[in-house]
Amino acid sequence: MNGMSWRQRLRDYWSPTEVIDTSPRVSDEVKYTTCYMCAGRCGIKVHLKDGGIRYIEGNPRHPVNHGVICGKGAAGIMHQQSPAKLRKPLMRVGERGSGEFREIEWDEAIATALEWLSRIRADDPKKLAFFTGRDQSQSMTGFWATQFGTPNFAAHGGFCSVNMAAAGMYTIGGSFWEFGEPDWERTKLLLMFGVAEDHDSNPIKISLSAMKRRGAKSISINPVRTGYSAIADEWIGIRPGTDGLFVLSLIHELLRADRVDLDYLARYTNAAWLVIQAPGTAEDGLFARDDKGSPLVLDKKGAVASALAVDVEMRMVGEAKLADGRRAVPVFQLIAERYLDPQYAPEAVAATCGVPAARISELAAEIGRVAFEEAIELPVPWTDWAGRRHETMRGRPVGMHAMRGISAHSNGFQTCRALHLLQLLLGTVDVPGGWRYKAPHPKPCPPGPKPAGKPGQVDAGKPLAGAPLGYPMGPEDLILDADGNPQRIDKAFSWEAPLANHGMMHMLIKNAWAGDPYKIDTLFMYMANMAWNSAMNTAETMRMLTDKEADGSYKIPRIIYSDAFYSEMVAYADLILPDTTYLERWDCISILDRPIGKVDGPADSIRQSILAVDRDVRPFQDVLIDLGARLGLPAFVNPDGSARYPAGYKDYLTYHERAPGIGPLAGWRGVDGESHGKGAPNPNQLQRYIDNGCFWKYELPEEQHYYKHANRAYLDNAVALGLIGNADPIVLQLYVEPLQKFRLAAQGHGAHQPPDRLRARIKTHFDPLPIWYPPFEGAQVDTEAFPLNAVTQRPMPMYHSWGSLNAWLRQIHGANRLFINRMTANSLGLQDDDWVWVTSHAGRIRAQLKLMDGVNPNTVWTWNAIGKRAGAWNLAANSPEFARGFLLNHLIGETLPDAPESNADPVTGQAAWYDLRVRVEKAPAAEAGESAPHFAVLGHPASLPKTPDILRYGWNKR
Amino acid sequence: MHPALSIVFFTTASGAGFALLTLTGIAVPLGLLPSNPGFGALTLMTAGLLAVAGLLSSTLHLGRPERAWRAFSQWKTSWLSREGVLSVAAFIPAAVFAVGWVIFGRVGGVSGLCGVLAGALAVGAVYCTAMIYRSLKPIRQWHNRWVVPNYFALALMSGLLLLDLIVRFWARPVAILALTIVVIAVAWWLKESYWRFIDTASAPSTVASATGLGRRGPVRMLEPPNTEENYLLKEMGFRIARKHRLRLRLVVRVAGFAVPLLATLAALMGLLPLLAALLAILSAALGLVVERWLFFAEAKHTVMLYYGAETV
Amino acid sequence: MTDLPAQYPGAKKLGLVIDLDVCVGCHACATACKEWNSGGHSAPLPDFNPYGEGAWGVWFNRVHSFEEGEGEDARTVHFPRSCLHCDEPACVTVCPTGASYKRAEDGIVLVNADICIGCKLCSWACPYGAREFDQDEGVMKKCTLCIDRIYNENLAEDERVPACVMVCPTNARHYGDLGDPNSAVSEMVAARGGKDLMPELGYRPVNKYLPPRHARSVTAASAEAPAAVPIGDNKLLRWVDRLLSR
After folding, report:
1. Contact (CB<8Å) B216/C62
2. Which single residue of A253, A457, A875, B25 has CA 20 to 30 Å from B222?
3. Rounded distance, CA A601 to CA A244, Å?
4. What is the pTM assigned to this prediction?
């Protein structure tokens, strides 16, 4: 104190200087795991301090996110804090939908499930319908279903993006998101179609901004300008459902300008393969093949030659006379003839797409210019499938990415096909600057295996003869009974949706309720909020779940549901198996499932249990494995009948082998942990993952980075790693022959015939070359009465129903608005903040408007799944999610407006919820202020905690 | 701006109290007002009560009222600190003056000097109050030349109206009443001028300047950062409908100015003078509370440019 | 102390540069900020009525969105907003207790919560809405520029940046010394025409915003591209003689 003036002392007393600890201890312990706040699967570092989570950040070494996380990931703490977490197994006591439960012990829960399931398995396994939602353990849940013996298994892909996946797999042996991505480092021009902000979110964010920074250009084709479209250099606000036509018009322009890479087409695609032209015969439109089954091409001399010969010189245009005298022409000729037709000229499509013709022409010109005048030559030597060495890797730097916006339409399959056709014509698939496969892709094309579930493949007490989901190659592979009727409860792989590779979860409840094609006994679901935002026609779905037979029993007799939270669906189930959060479980992101591989090599990862479970819940996968063992499913028991994986999923991850040497995790296999890809189970495998930050990444040598479909070194390596079965080159399929087989059946050829009511539908839509047709709903409703398209997208900081339970994220999106184009609103006499009725052929809702300029004039849109059912999620009953939030789902029919078929793509069965057509009218003043419809408030389990008035998270961590 | 009742009451009550203190503190030693100790007791008690009640009320607005004493430290930069310092400082000479006058009956000498000093400090306190608002650049309705004169005029007007009521027990307040009428008229004119100013002048800040955007064209908010009201919106996002605003201005005009003016005129003309003076002060109290409420309610903060306001 | 530190050329001014050209509006900076600071220097950042109506909480960083321009040319712009650590911070000078202060050594504006009386005047004085009132503790809180990260010796050197910068997936947030004209952030501001927010108020913010870049036009870029080749009656003629090998 000496030397201090009295003024100094007075000041220090009155207004002391703050002493700041600039180096506080950050955490006691850091644990690595994988995020699950969305489906992106970023690597995270969880900092633990004083027995709780201090904070969560990205893992800088992780191949998916390189250290960043998103708004959701950084709010993981509040996920864990949520008072909506279920705390105990529940048995319904009130009526379904009342939310009245009895809390039970796990013994009773397991015994009940076992009693129901064992009876079904002994009697008729397909009476169990086992469907999972945003499940990241599908390779295990699907395997369990196979072992149980039911064909009725699928996850949510049928209403997510199966159009995209199927079109990609049948065309190029890969697809977008998990299967491939633009060459972010080298693309000079990026086209994004229908990319909302959720899928593959951090990688896209990282890459888009890096791309912009290095001066590359991005163009977003999307009805709504938010998120990625917001930062696009150009935005083309296309009308929903017309992307296919837009792309075919680009193809038209590129063909006209001769901007196609014929060399690429000849080397890597079936462009030169000869297609039989014999209308009216059973082989019309199939590939001409030699007696060994090899497809044929037209050679220099005008003779036919095997397409698989190494040095054949081929023609892309011409006519071949086959040995039997029939005509055949190359695929490319069919393509040129079709798409040069004036119906695809920009002027012809402009009005439909809502894009000026000049803009389409200019874009085509720019694509052509970048692809052919700014080609890339990488000085990386490589050897092709035939053993020929190339000194460089050539690339056409036009990158493309697409997502659900083009997928969730009834023309989505063909639209995605059109996009791949565009990529192939430009020669941009797996080339520098173009679009690249992510390991384990490319897969053989057309793909395999075929789905199982035909009558002979389902047997009481026995596993199914194969996996329930797969890739049909023709009508003979459909899952039908002897009379040609659907054999799956969701009617996947029936004539209604022959290539339903991901199943059709959206039809599950309706079919189970109607007993069509048959009655089921138990509906077993995991993480699928079918009583709310995961269903189309939500109100009707709730009614079906509660509808009863004349004898008072429920039409869907038993429902088992597993969820970590008190979601709307919980109230509609009979037996609830409470799950843990992502920080309390072991889990794996497997190459056998939806992989996280990268363009430069395969990768997979694990979740480790970081927090001890503080309530009476169990990881669903552990419960499923336990049930599997108790049911005696062969793969889940030892020969002596004891449980094969006594420690649950953790054991399964380590010891399960799908094929010899191939298990859920590809890293550190073999007894010594030194094998990658294939190898014997390694008891220390999980520890090796933990030591490496919970992921495994294999780096491909540079010569294997591109042209993977035809790259000798890559193909051999991929076989060695167990990514593909054989090292044959993968020929990319401009023309998809299996589609033509369905069309031939519809024309009356072959033993497997569609029902007459579906013949025309199949004939039209199974075109082996991409076509465009108006989305079904728009074609079937009165477009004067329903002039607007209506779409949704997930907001970046909120993931479906996994956000409203989060105290931070629900502050960002507690209610949603209906966004409408300013000019459109003006013409309808509507203003900002007005309350409106939105009406579709299937229903009506009330919502509040927000005007914006960055939306297609014929389109309204909203953030998805912000609206909640009062009483659910342990939110107060006056929460904005109920009062002002709304779901568009109420407006979406699960069947077509004027046909009994599902509101879906006719090829894949993908739910066509972006086909929605509506009209918007001002609500009477008396109705303003509250959204509609509203449903009765759900009760909730007694063990859910009372919610706090103030959350002071972290007060003790300072 | 959210009109916190504690602040509305504080600024009006302490303004009136300080004005009354100033009037007596200066006028009594100069012999312009009666020096009767009874008059002294009543005026100074009234002034003191209003000022103290106001100051106490202002602490209700604080998140940590027990730390209010710390507010005296930053008088070098902070008008709020200065206001606190001067307010409290005014009490010391005021207390001396009160003791001298009321107990010893002395209004000259040290006592008188203290009265003048207290008056001067009280003027300073009112000035500081006004400057708290006047200095806030983000709020155009406050950051303008009309605010300080308005605060002074309204404080003086309310002080005079109080004086009108009290002084009549000791003297016939013709001059004071006349002065009051003039002050009411001036205050009214100042308030009208203030309103005219805030209704017509435009803020230098716009959505474009707040975001640095605008090269492509007009800028509009699309989505707020949160769908429910946060602190900023609760505190700064107060909105008052035009219809409501105009109605309340009418209340201010009638209750705050017209009625006190007419009542004071009536008192001057000897029509029920006591009742008239009482009516004048009660009506003015109502008018001034509404005026002060509107002063907040009509004030728009630039932060609202980030929340959808087109102008502030 | 509400006296502002003396300013001299080259004095250290730590702050952020926010690139509106690449911000996609993901709110990662907002929640990462909330997350770090919930256990940090100003902990806790309480949330009121967190599971009911009108939930609100203390956040130091919020992401707004705007539209700039009209019609088809409109661009959606996501706009993160936090304390700008102004050179002339009226939030500091209005503070009656000295709780609000600007650090001489790096220019960071902070609140000493131990002596804050919660009068809220600083929040009125801030044009940018950077001040957040903790109704529970009765004190004002604000962005600290992660003062407990940027100098934290328990963190690796490359992690000593604010949480919002660390997390940003699009690299739209940059942290550095804006007082040094040769720093990376200063050069970025110079190159991209970085902007002050509400410069007319004279607060002289340290943080800068880089405006969205103008899109290059398709037409201009492809002006020299060959037009579509006219096609005669035989559309396929030009490909007839092409021979290609596998």
Report:
1. no
2. A875
3. 31
4. 0.96
